[in-house]
């Protein structure tokens, strides 16, 4: 059974993404980075949630295909630090716990997320 199926498919994933994107967009630890604050708040949340839902569905084995920009192209200009990355993971942990995602599935999701870190946190970001 794919991770996508074990998570409950697109309806469950979209619900989790909805909570998570609200959480990161309102997180003062992330909005302390002025580039993140500006970029996050110039786009409609619903569109951002749509793209992240597509991406999570594809990465977990669902039939959807991600149609947004690459992780490097959409984050390189933001100077995201290792500390901001950790705050982002903390938000993810809070959302997954809220929805009672079991430890095994949480572990698989964190492994997928970790795989993108080198495209999002670039070495020169040391604020
Ligand atoms: C695995 C981790 C992450 C994933 C999967 C992810 C996913 C995405 C996606 C799908 C987009 C939209 C791409 C597009 O417009 O085509 C995006 C943009 C963005 N992300 Fe992330 N993101 C991650 C980590 C982060 C972190 C850690 C931060 C902030 C600290 C962040 C802040 C932003 C911002 C501000 C934008 C808008 C950029 C712009 O339009 O200029 N992301 N992200």
Automatic annotation (TrEMBL):
InterPro entries named in the record: Globin-like_sf, Globin/Proto, Hemoglobin_trunc
UniProt entry tagged with the keyword Nucleotide-binding: no
Keyword Metal-binding: yes
Record keywords: Heme, Iron, Metal-binding, Transport
One annotated GO molecular function: metal ion binding
SUPFAM superfamilies: Globin-like
Chain positions recorded as heme binding sites: 75
Domain of life (superkingdom): Bacteria
Name of the protein: Group 1 truncated hemoglobin GlbN
Originating species: Urbifossiella limnaea
């Amino acid at each position: 059974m794919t991770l996508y199926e074990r998570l409950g498919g697109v309806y469950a994933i979209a619900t989790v993404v909805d909570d998570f994107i609200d959480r990161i967009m309102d997180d003062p630890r992330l909005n302390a980075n002025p580039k993140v604050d500006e970029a996050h708040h110039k786009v409609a949340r619903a569109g951002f949630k749509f793209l992240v839902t597509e991406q999570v569905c594809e990465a977990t084995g669902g039939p959807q295909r991600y149609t947004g920009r690459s992780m490097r192209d959409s984050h390189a200009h933001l100077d995201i630090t290792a500390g901001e990355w950790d705050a982002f993971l903390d938000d993810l942990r809070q959302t997954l716990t809220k929805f009672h995602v079991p430890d095994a599935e949480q572990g698989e999701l964190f492994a997928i997320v970790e795989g993108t870190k080198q495209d999002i946190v670039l070495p020169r970001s040391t604020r």
